[in-house]
Specification:
With 320 residues, the chain is an alpha/beta fold. It is built from eleven helices and twelve strands. The chain binds iron/sulfur cluster. Iron/sulfur cluster binds next to α1, α4 and α8.
Length: 320
């Protein structure tokens, strides 16, 4: 008999990699295979240090701006978060060979914003200032055409030129509940505002939040595996807290576990943000197994089968 205390781990499912992240990583890997290193990547391809470091080890070179890329024939990949229109324009003007790893669900929001603009509407974007996806979406239209709102208070302070001719779009990785409140405030103030069919929060964000809601109220603590700059991971931690979990923490690796914070727990929920690989979840479970007698149970709230096509330039490489 082990003298370790028992610990029941409830693993949220779905968790971890989404179809957009999977595709973005594949794009860099296939570009490395097909064209050889270096492959330049503008911004972290996805917000996860482990993923970025593994690709760097294979020959990817990460930069924040195209100005850091020398004149080269090597491929330049744009990250899953999407980029402002000025970025491919700059790449084209420098005759760069670029591959766009923007998630198709982010591109869909770009198209919605462009369509509203074409119809003469002022566009309200619900999102977090400074996040690369927000910078990319705002950069689809001329400066001033999109107004960012982050909170219900921001909605109260909006001063649109024509309140009867507005539309809203959103970042894909927001809290479903917070966004609902902001949308309600928008519709209250501007009943004529044009909306997406549902919202722009992607299936992966929605499903991961639902799984956390199912687990969080039943466990003594919850770990979200993900990076501090990952929006969807941060939201998962908040969702766990709001769903009644007394201790919800965001961790990148097992080495960051503060064991004193988990003393005396008998149950633990684990999930992972859309950019966190499963191997990091396994690493954390293994670390707990050294301190507790663990049993692991999966709590599944949705099945995911979605997959996205690769860019044309890489499709044959994938088939080989
Ligand atoms: S979190 Fe959603 S929008 Fe972002 S890459 Fe994944 S599927 Fe695409």
């Amino acid at each position: 008999m082990s003298d370790l205390a028992p610990l029941k781990i409830e693993l949220c499912a779905p968790r971890g990699f989404c179809a957009g992240v999977d595709r973005a990583i594949q794009i860099v890997e296939l570009a490395l295979e097909r064209f050889g290193p270096p492959v330049y990547v503008r911004h972290e391809i996805v917000h996860n240090k482990f993923v970025v470091d593994s690709l760097r080890a294979k020959g990817a070179v990460f930069v924040e701006e195209l100005s850091e890329v020398p004149d080269t024939d090597a491929p330049v990949v744009f990250s899953a978060h999407g980029v402002a229109k000025a970025v491919p324009a700059e790449a084209a003007s420098r005759n760069m060979f670029y591959l766009d790893a923007t998630c198709p669900l982010v591109s869909k929001v770009h198209k919605e914003a462009q369509l509203h603009f074409k119809r003469g509407r002022e566009v309200i974007l619900i999102g977090h200032a400074g996040h690369p996806e927000v910078v990319g979406t705002m950069g689809q239209l001329p400066e001033g055409a999109i107004t960012l709102v982050e909170t219900v208070e921001d909605v109260a302070n909006l001063k649109p030129e024509n309140p009867d001719n507005l539309a809203w779009v959103s970042q894909t990785t927001l809290s479903v509940d917070d966004t609902r409140a902001i949308v309600a405030a928008l519709s209250d103030r501007f009943p004529a505002i044009a909306s997406p069919h549902k919202d722009d929060i992607c299936y992966a964000t929605t499903n991961r939040q639902e799984a956390v809601k199912a687990v969080a109220p039943n466990v003594d603590a919850m770990i979200v595996v993900g990076a501090p700059n990952s929006s969807n991971s941060q939201r998962l931690r908040e969702v766990a807290e709001r769903a009644g979990c007394p201790r919800a923490v965001l961790l990148q690796r097992a080495g960051e576990i503060d064991w004193s914070a988990f003393e005396g727990i008998r149950s633990l929920g684990i999930t992972a943000g859309a950019s966190a690989p499963e191997t990091l979840v396994e690493e954390i479970i293994a670390a707990f197994a050294e301190h507790y007698e663990v049993t692991v149970e999966t709590v599944r709230t949705a099945d995911e089968t979605i997959a996205f096509n690769l860019p044309r330039e890489l499709r044959t490489a994938a088939a080989e």
